Amino acid sequence: MSATLVIMAAGLGSRFKGGIKQLEPFGPCGEIIMDYSIYDAVRAGFDKVVFIIRRDIREAFDEMIGNRIGAHVKVDYVYQELDCLPEGFKVPEERVKPWGHGHAVCCCKGIVNEPFAVINADDFYGKEAFEKLYAFLTTEHSGDKLAMAMAGFVLKNTLSNNGAVNRGVCKVDENYMLADVEETYNIRREEDGKVYSGKEDKKELSEDSYVSMNMWGCPAGFIEKLNERFTEFLKANGDSLTAEFLLPEGIDYMIKHGMADCKLLESRDKWFGVTYAEDKPYVKSAISELIAAGTYPEKLWA
Known about the structure:
By secondary structure, the chain is an alpha/beta fold. The protein is 27% helix and 26% strand.
């Protein structure tokens, strides 16, 4: 059964020429973080990659990664443009900011018609999550609801040593079905070894909590439902110059209104990201260790 990897990269566009920290080489042969996500997805079984980008960076994006990846897996592009809107809506005259990553996935309508996983361009997820998502997406699911999945990472495996992070802390039932994702801010480990969130309203968190890193498994038919929700969003926010339609909010709405069920798939892999410039040496070192352990070849696409 076919499954596609969708990578949300349109947000990189406004800074593409300015030395984006997430697009610096991290592997020994110039690999960027996306290379490792795509490599893990392809060896898990995904047979197509769709990049969501801005149209004006297509040529530069091909030079950076698209041409290289195209030799190993089918590649397609979706352009997140401001005017990619449902019929009857138009862009406010002074709006310049995209409508958010929920809108980015909506732009895949007509291009992605099969089950797919969607990820951020600048996060390193590890191979376990891709393997579990592919297995879920290529399994038949009964029932009238959309059968979705989310890669759930363990909070302690997603912290930065260089400052606080924001995470979606998950609540699940006894069957690991997702009940809620609470956006939680300023999460850090303090000198007492415990993990806290907030500042004035400081709260201790379990380091073993599951968190969302915006890595979802979506069935065929999901994009149609997401576009319906985006239409409702535009009815309320269509004149806004800054409002964003966020993917987790769209999924949360579907779950709470009986349209979808979402299974949390636990990943014990270490998440890497470049939240701070100081994170870069750590990410490079961590990838080197994975290569030394045989998880990845030194020349990723040899």
